[in-house]
Amino acid sequence: MTKVAPSVLSADFSKLKEEIDTLEGAKWLHYDVMDGHFVPNISFGYSILANVRKATDLFLDVHLMITDPMFYVDEFIKAGADMITFHIEAMESREKTMELINHIHASNVQVGISIKPGTHVDAILPYLNDVDMILVMSVEPGFGGQSFNDIAVEKIKTLNSLKGKYGFIIEVDGGINEQTGKLCVEAGCDVLVAGSYVFKAASRRDAIASLLCE
Ligand SMILES: O=C(CO)[C@@H](O)[C@H](O)COP(=O)(O)O
Q1: Considering its fold, how many domains does the chain have in total?
Q2: Whole-angstrom Cα distance, residue 100 to residue 208?
């Protein structure tokens, strides 16, 4: 069954708990961390994540769009992340990448690796046996409300053909709505991140339900 992970980046931060409580039907919450360096935007960090953790039992899917994930990762683990996804483009070597994956797993937190639209799937093939999730970005990371780039669909198809062998799941993020979500699910995607489509909907429950339909 497809999972929907509403992206809290599109919520009204002045009433975060109330906003999270409207997400009926979702089991995951996507939490975008932006450092103003890896991406040209700044969002929120681990202190707010700790408050989000207190406010909800949803699975906290933390997406680190930051230059130095190893430096900050323990803070996000302490704050209550259930899954931590970092970008392959932020990593300088295979050794450092494996060190980060093993470090996160040692704290019993799941690990994802993300690729930007311009990064080929080949970049993450060496890690498929070691991670729980691959996050395919369908927009350039940094901002909500952008249009879906269908380069993601081909990547999802490629990854889907390898899923059975390795056991990871596939998530897509950026420009997801009923139509683009359907394309991704048909290609083999397991988790749909949706920001503006859910938070701007007249009925958030209906928006989430429309993504859950297979
Ligand atoms: O990571 C990001 C943007 O960098 C996303 O999680 C966005 O928050 C998704 O927003 P929509 O494209 O669904 O509005």
Answers
A1: 1
A2: 33
Length of the chain: 214
Find the 141 Cα to ligand 1 centroid distance in Å: 7
Catalytic residue status for 190: no
pTM: 0.97
Give yes or no for a contact between 67 and 90, defined as CB atoms under 8 angstroms apart.
yes
What is the CATH classification number for the domain harbouring 75?
3.20.20.70
Query: What's the CA-to-centroid distance between 64 and ligand 1, angstroms?
Result: 13
Provide the residue type at 139 as one letter.
V
> Which residue out of 34, 39, 137, 196 has the highest number of ligand 1 atoms within 8 Å of its CB and is therefore the one to mutate?
196
**C-alpha angle with apex 43: 114 to 110, nearest 5 degrees?**
35
Question: pLDDT 10s digit of each residue in the chain, 214 long?
Answer: 899 999 999 999 999 999 999 999 999 999 999 999 999 999 999 999 999 999 999 999 999 999 999 999 999 999 999 999 999 999 999 999 999 999 999 999 999 999 999 999 999 999 999 999 999 999 999 999 999 999 999 999 999 999 999 999 999 999 999 999 999 999 999 999 999 999 999 999 999 999 996 5
ipTM topping 0.95: yes
Label residue 122 exposed, middle or buried (CB < 10 Å: 0-12, 13-18, 19+). Answer: exposed
Ligand 1 near 116 CB (within 6 A)? no
Q: What is the domain extent for residue 201?
A: 3-212
Q: Please name the amino acid found at residue 125.
A: L
